[in-house]
Structure formats: C-alpha cells, structure tokens
Amino acid sequence: MKVLIVGSGGREHAIAWKVSQSSKVEKIYCAPGNAGIAEYAQCLPIGAMEFEKLVAFAEEEKIGLTIIGMDDPLVGGIVDVFEKKGLRVFGPRENAAILEGSKAFSKDLMKKYNIPTAAYENFDDAQEAYEYLEKAEFPIVLKADGLALGKGVLICNTIEEAKEGVKTIMLDKQFGAAGNRLVIEEFMVGREVSVLSFVDGKTIKTMTSAQDHKRAKDGDEGLNTGGMGTFSPSPFYTDEVDEFCKKYIYQATVDAMKSEGREFKGIIFFGLMLTKNGPKVLEYNARFGDPEAQVVLPRMKNDIIEVMEACIDGTLDQLELEFENNAAVCVVLASDGYPLAYDKGLEIKGLENFKEKEGYYVFHAGTKFDNEKIVTNGGRVLGVVAKGEDLKAARTNAYEATKWIDFANKYMRSDIGKAIDEV
C-alpha cells in the first residue's frame, strides 16, 4: 500500500523510518516532512492543518493508510474529515483527541472514573484563580488547558510566581487560546515515566517505558521544552508499577473514554509520576511522544502497519507487542537559545556518519534542504539515538555519536539518562 504520514518533526521521522521496514508498504509520502524524512518518503508541500488538501491527495493517490503524527491536526478533527471520505486513517477522532486537547477535560475524566492523578481545580476566570492561590500550598503547578507545544506548564514555588504565571497564561495569553482556561494542580514528587500505548477502542497494548527530560538545561533547570532527550526502558518502571497501572490507569482510561461516548483509537501517551503513594497520571497525549518515539520505535520488533491496522479494525487483542531486550538513549541537538530565540539556516555537517551504522540513528526534528545542503530549521534540530545492551552502554554510545555531527550554535544537555546512575 501507499502510506501518508502527517507531520514534520523527529517523531514523524521515527515513524517514517519504522513504516519503511514494513513488507506491506510500497511508497511513503509525508506532509510536510523534513530533510531527514525525505530519505524514506516523498515530502509534500502541504501543511499538517490543510485538511482538504491532504484528503484530496489521499484520494487522488489512493493512499491505503494515513498516519497522523501531530497533536494539532488530531485535536482539530482531521481523522473525522478522512473518515467521512471513507479513507483509512490512524489516530483518534476529534471527540477522543480532547484527551490531550483539554487538560481540564482529562482531569475531570480522571476524577469521575477514579483514575489516580494530582488534586486540582479548573479556572475560567483569572481573579478566581488568584483567590484560590491565597489558600494553596506551594510549590504548585499551573497548566494552560489547551495545546501549547509541550510548554504550557509552569511550576511555581511562591504565591508571587504563581500569580505572575496566571497573568502570563490567562491575561497575557503567552500560549494563545490554550490559556483561556487554567488548571491549577498539586505539585507531585517522584520519578516521571512515559508509557506509550496502542488502543483500538476497547483493547490497550502498552509499549516499553521511557523517560523524557523536559527542561532546557542540565540538572532539570531552565525553561520547559518539547523534550531534550529520553531513554528507554525506565529502570524505575518495575513489574509492580506496571501491574498497578494496567489495573487502575491504562484500561480504566480506555473504558472511561468509551463510557463517555468518545471511543479512542490510536496512541495514548501516559505521562506518569511515580509518587510515594503510587503511580499517578501527570498528563495524557493522543499521539506518539517526541522524543519518546525515537527510543521506543527502534526497540519495537512488530510491523507497525500491522499494529496500526489492528487498532483501526478493533483486532488489537489478537496481537502481542514485542520489544528488543536492550536499551536506547536519545540526545537532542538543539540550536542554542531554544526554546526562546535561535538562529535558523545553519549548515549541518556529519550526517553521513550514521549511514550503515547498526544501532545508531539520527532523527531530524527541525531541518530542511537549502539547495544541496541540509540546514537547521527549528529549535530542536536532531535526535541522536543509540542502542546498547543496557542503559549505561546506550548512553555512552549516544553521547559518542553526538560528536559525529556539527553545526554552529549546537547545544545539548550533558546529563540525559543521568538518573540511571542512581539505580
């Protein structure tokens, strides 16, 4: 079949790489794609939010499966648009993608169905939020309700910081309409773990665990970003934790969405906090994590097209997910200044060093072609990934591989996976 992937980041590059290995696929297209994705797919000059153009292309080219990588088109209802035309598409419908599209909705869902999460309140009015903060315990977490590129979360240590945060989100609209509503949440202490899962509306199959590093600077300092690196599996995600989550979080979420008339088919990303009182949900996403996909998919043994089709057809219970018994680490190479101001158009050298090197990958996040050269075109530029027999070996390999690539203003954290030293 022909496959169309919608998106342009490191996540979509990892998906395209994995799709290219499927025996069911003859040609891959990506809209709009990037310079790395172009190795596996024909990139199209169509934006991820140009639904009618995407549908027209899929109809004209007789695309057998469209895979939606990004959150914006999912929350915007792209799956519904494709389905109305009788096209096969992987991802949740608009009424299910709200699981990521509204943090207030997802918190209310968890409260209603007794899914473990942090205590919280939702606010539509800034003045009411200010009054609530007068009685709150600190630190405390402020979350813009809608999509904010993974950056709409503020951890505030004092009431002054929190009030400034309310102003930033609700009044100054730093995150646009995403800040029309605000979630104020208890600050949870513990290890963060990410667990991606495939869902077919009733059955859920979880992938191997991972852990992201959100902050821009070493030691988890600096501003929140889309993710500066990740490792898989998490040594903190034990069999005991897995058993608890399967019983009280994973299947409970799928069942809750079905009960609400919002049947979920696609990917649910569970952001978990392993607290002293047990695992709790930090957040849901309705698609692959980025950069979690870059360490999870290289370890996955299954044909991804078979799994995605089972999700669409409601036959996921007939499959078992299999993962390699090893580890992977991703170090993000960013443009210095990210997530604020940074330069673009800087030539990237050394990408050829990854050719034919087994267990080493470079996934493009923000790149493009400039004549014959590949140049930077975003804050997060590349994800350098390496496997190893264990996490320490994978981490050593990944940092060694970051030396193979060079561009002006190259920046990375030096402590991705450092937590594994404590195990």
TrEMBL record:
<keyword id="KW-0479">Metal-binding</keyword>
<protein>
    <recommendedName>
        <fullName>Phosphoribosylamine--glycine ligase</fullName>
        <ecNumber>6.3.4.13</ecNumber>
    </recommendedName>
</protein>
<dbReference type="Pfam" id="PF02844">
    <property type="entry name" value="GARS_N"/>
</dbReference>
<keyword id="KW-0436">Ligase</keyword>
<comment type="similarity">
    <text>Belongs to the GARS family.</text>
</comment>
<dbReference type="InterPro" id="IPR000115">
    <property type="entry name" value="PRibGlycinamide_synth"/>
</dbReference>
<dbReference type="GO" id="GO:0004637">
    <property type="term" value="F:phosphoribosylamine-glycine ligase activity"/>
</dbReference>
<dbReference type="InterPro" id="IPR011761">
    <property type="entry name" value="ATP-grasp"/>
</dbReference>
<keyword id="KW-0658">Purine biosynthesis</keyword>
<dbReference type="InterPro" id="IPR011054">
    <property type="entry name" value="Rudment_hybrid_motif"/>
</dbReference>
<comment type="pathway">
    <text>Purine metabolism; IMP biosynthesis via de novo pathway; N(1)-(5-phospho-D-ribosyl)glycinamide from 5-phospho-alpha-D-ribose 1-diphosphate: step 2/2.</text>
</comment>
<dbReference type="GO" id="GO:0005524">
    <property type="term" value="F:ATP binding"/>
</dbReference>
<keyword id="KW-0464">Manganese</keyword>
<dbReference type="GO" id="GO:0006189">
    <property type="term" value="P:'de novo' IMP biosynthetic process"/>
</dbReference>
<dbReference type="InterPro" id="IPR020559">
    <property type="entry name" value="PRibGlycinamide_synth_CS"/>
</dbReference>
<dbReference type="InterPro" id="IPR020562">
    <property type="entry name" value="PRibGlycinamide_synth_N"/>
</dbReference>
<dbReference type="InterPro" id="IPR020560">
    <property type="entry name" value="PRibGlycinamide_synth_C-dom"/>
</dbReference>
<dbReference type="Pfam" id="PF02843">
    <property type="entry name" value="GARS_C"/>
</dbReference>
<keyword id="KW-0067">ATP-binding</keyword>
<dbReference type="InterPro" id="IPR037123">
    <property type="entry name" value="PRibGlycinamide_synth_C_sf"/>
</dbReference>
<keyword id="KW-0547">Nucleotide-binding</keyword>
<dbReference type="InterPro" id="IPR013815">
    <property type="entry name" value="ATP_grasp_subdomain_1"/>
</dbReference>
<dbReference type="GO" id="GO:0009113">
    <property type="term" value="P:purine nucleobase biosynthetic process"/>
</dbReference>
<feature type="domain" description="ATP-grasp">
    <location>
        <begin position="107"/>
        <end position="313"/>
    </location>
</feature>
<dbReference type="InterPro" id="IPR020561">
    <property type="entry name" value="PRibGlycinamid_synth_ATP-grasp"/>
</dbReference>
<dbReference type="InterPro" id="IPR016185">
    <property type="entry name" value="PreATP-grasp_dom_sf"/>
</dbReference>
<dbReference type="GO" id="GO:0046872">
    <property type="term" value="F:metal ion binding"/>
</dbReference>
<dbReference type="Pfam" id="PF01071">
    <property type="entry name" value="GARS_A"/>
</dbReference>
